[in-house]
Design goal:
Pfam families: Polysacc_deac_1. GO terms for molecular function: chitin deacetylase activity; metal ion binding. There is one protein chain. Helices cover about 30% and strands about 15% of the residues. By secondary structure, it is α/β, with parallel strands linked by helices. The strands form four sheets. Strands 6-5-4-11-10 form a five-stranded parallel beta sheet. Strands 1-3-2 form a three-stranded antiparallel beta sheet, covered by helices on one side. Helix 5 runs parallel beside helix 11, helix 8 runs parallel beside helix 9 and helix 10 packs parallel to helix 11. The longest helix is centred in the C-terminal third of the chain and has 19 residues. The relative contact order is 0.14. Bound molecules: 2-acetamido-2-deoxy-beta-D-glucopyranose. 2-acetamido-2-deoxy-beta-D-glucopyranose binds next to helix 8.
Amino acid sequence: MKLYATALLVFSTVATAKSNDETKPINPLLLSSPRNIDHSAKYINLPISPGKLRENLQNHASGPQTYGTGSKPSHLDRTLADYTVPSRQEIGIGGGISGNNQGVKIYAQFKQPFPDWLQSITGLTKWPDENAPYIPLDDIDLSVVPKIPKRSLGDCSNVERSHCSFECYRCVAPDDIITCPVMSQTFDDGPSPSTPKLLDQLPIKTTFFTQGINVVRFPETVRLQHQEGHLLASHTWSHANLPGLSNEDIAAQIQWSIWAINATAGVVPRYFRPPYGAIDDRVRTITRQFGLVAVFWDKDTFDWRVNDRSKTENEVYQEVRQWQAETPGALILEHDSTIKTVNVGIEVSRLIHSKQMTVADCVNGPWYND
Ligand SMILES: *[C@@H]1O[C@H](CO)[C@@H](O)[C@H](O)[C@H]1NC(C)=O
């Protein structure tokens, strides 16, 4: 409990903007990229003021940085949103948990700058919040979209079979992807503060369905994913239930997620996974215009349930072994949003212990649109 309090102190020191905090300088030895995190190290508490943090970031703006704290606070299992400093929105704060000693590292990275080309397309000067505005584009025609009613999440009461909803009827369109010739993991919702650990320990190339709002918050992590040969794909801008939105808002969720990945890693995504698997032919008519292929899954780990302990890690591993006995190939749904689901992902990759494919390679398709 004492160690928790030490770690919490760092979080709260960062989170409250006091101009004149007493701070020690950061030990440069503690600065590192996530790749170089020593997972066995235990770090001492090293309070830092927002001003010092900013100064330090500006002097070493090339990458994420690590600075010390005490031991593992249980709230590190929450999502990255908890660590973003509201008054310093250009800086994302992430944490990672190291090996046996469970020392905590916090690294900060600059939010992705809003590029000039995007400013000229949108007329805006910064990334939007979760309610991204629709920006009309010449090659997107919403007048051809079929008139299928909006519906809220989980409401399948008036959904016609002909609308081809995946979440209500497991309906897939001919151009949708649902499986893979070999057992292959996929990770939704990130990047998060826990993603660097996954990148560190995953022995295979995988597919990341990212939320645009997280992409611009953790651009260094996204570039690392790209550099290390993983496939970057879209999971919308802010995890929207697409069938519940207007045509314009669906287009906004898609266009901003594409722009975020393009601005950050310089690639234009070709694959997207609708949050909750929620889709119908109204949504597809819009997403296809952006050149996107919809990707689902045929094996669900429900790994997010380990977060509230309504499912155990061992139950996940049992099921994966069962799938391996039943079938040579599958697309497995996982999440890189918390340290618990990341740990499960690492263990599942060891269980599968064979060649996996990215979604693009599953269908022998291009990795990106140009
Ligand atoms: C991708 O980024 C480049 C600039 O690097 C820009 O010219 C291009 O329009 C962008 N494409 C999309 C689809 O966002």
